[in-house]
User: What shape does this take?
Amino acid sequence: MKQGYRNMMVTNPTTAKCCHICKLPGRVMGIRVLRFSLVVILVLLLVAGALTALLPTVKEDKMLMLRREIKSQGKSTLDAFTLIMQTYNRTDLLLKLLNHYQAVPNLHKVIVVWNNIGEKTPDELWNSLGPHPIPVIFKQQTANRMRNRLQVFPELETNAVLMVDDDTLISTPDLVFAFSVWQQFPDQIVGFVPRKHVPTSSGIYSYGSFEMQAPGSGNGDQYSMVLIGASFFNSKYLELFQRQPAAVRALIDDTQNCDDIAMNFIIAKHIGKTSGIFVKPVNMDNLEKETNSGYSGMWHRAEHALQRSFCINKLVNIYDSMPLKYSNIMISQFGFPYANYKRKM
Amino acid sequence: MKQGYRNMMVTNPTTAKCCHICKLPGRVMGIRVLRFSLVVILVLLLVAGALTALLPTVKEDKMLMLRREIKSQGKSTLDAFTLIMQTYNRTDLLLKLLNHYQAVPNLHKVIVVWNNIGEKTPDELWNSLGPHPIPVIFKQQTANRMRNRLQVFPELETNAVLMVDDDTLISTPDLVFAFSVWQQFPDQIVGFVPRKHVPTSSGIYSYGSFEMQAPGSGNGDQYSMVLIGASFFNSKYLELFQRQPAAVRALIDDTQNCDDIAMNFIIAKHIGKTSGIFVKPVNMDNLEKETNSGYSGMWHRAEHALQRSFCINKLVNIYDSMPLKYSNIMISQFGFPYANYKRKM
Assistant: This one.
């Protein structure tokens, strides 16, 4: 190539001219330009090669992670959820409910938060009645705390949590639909139990349900919370909960209540919009009357409702704001039950 | 300043040195540098001055526009919508409906697309029955085309369009609620009439409603279109429609049908997700039986339903894809009608 260039230099009159930028003779200039061009081309090739080498590796890592997850459980953990069910003194209900929930589509695993301190978990019984469709892990707790179910469980592999109280039976169609809704709104609590806070002229809030004054001046009602005890939410919110001020954990421990109200505060504050979306359940039952344990749920305590209002005001104090936002969006499944969208004629 | 500089030159040894870049004496170099610096500084000052002069003017213009709009209409055009109602041969229904719609909250203006070619618009009558809450503009058309209502009307100032057929009465609570839903999903058609396309083993699609086979294997039904004739959508989609291939306009003109199917195709393709969200109407009526004109709507033509299926397949051909996506989300207003969320016990 050098040979050819020298020939070009001799025959091409332009290269023989003086470069007006610099005083060097054309021929030397020519070689320097050639060298410079070659260096630039080489550098570009190296950069391109580096990029080509880097990009697929990043993609491969992601693909590898996905494949590993799929292999280990037989389904992608992006399309599945983990049931977290906390239980205290209602093992008969728990086992009845587990028989139902273990068969729900897209369920990855069940984590049972065993608040029966000192009592053995029913692993043996459970295993003797296997095989089961999915793994169920009984986690013995050290103390009977309401907030035990909000720990960051290492066994949890999915992006979504289904949290259900140990006396609540939610039908499979409801769960399948609500999960599909959560997948479209993964930053919000998608659940079946709406509640609201009500402001009063004194600035003190009350907690309640449909019986309370609807806020605002329009038609209908509003909700500002979706209770986590029958809901889907993003598993990263468990980590978010653990990062909250100690005062929040103390409030929940003192009242043995309000972990769900706290979660709604935390999430609303985090996302800057309403914490949850209400999905109207078609078939959801409370089984607490069916228990043989004689144990009634916490919400039967005389002070329960007042505690909930108390918690709201305490949380406003802790966060120095009221982050809850109202919504009146109610989601149902189109065409289920049959023809539920037919309008009145 | 020149005086001071000359003194500096004499006393400052560095300026007396030769500039190594150029062979001119230091003093001449110094003056040239000074002049150059002054020119640069002057230019920068002019640019800065220009920017300072321009910026507030732009903001002021926007503020002025907003204020003018607020003054003229009493509401911000971000929180208001424009009703576009196309009409043909049903002026009695039109005027009855206008009496209702003109009083809907957050309505900015009405644009009546007058497809009665050769017949005078009822401006005189309308004005004689004033004053009216909002402006109503009757736009005489040059030809009776179905797609006339999808023009980019210069009178349209709002981000949202409410499009209603001239025989459809939608109650105010339904409109107020659906508009609030649209504000949360401004890239989708939020409306009251869901429809779907149904694939067949031959690859040929059919158009239909609840009577047709639900796609997929789950519970309930799905919809893939929300008809624009009773809906809110983003006004920029009118511009998007005008930018579509001529074949789309030709199809609508040939069938005098399918402008709404086309809009769903266009929007689904544009946003990569389902084109619309279905809001279940509480009180919506079709008044076509009440007209004295003897004119029945287009959908009574024998070939109407077959045309709709025909249009779907034509549009798939034009766009070389099926962009419509299914959804089973049905939205209702929480607590309206009263206690509509109470679950079965």
About this structure: Confidence is low (pLDDT under 50) at residues 1-19, 56-60, 63-75 of chain B. The longest helix of chain B spans residues 26-73.
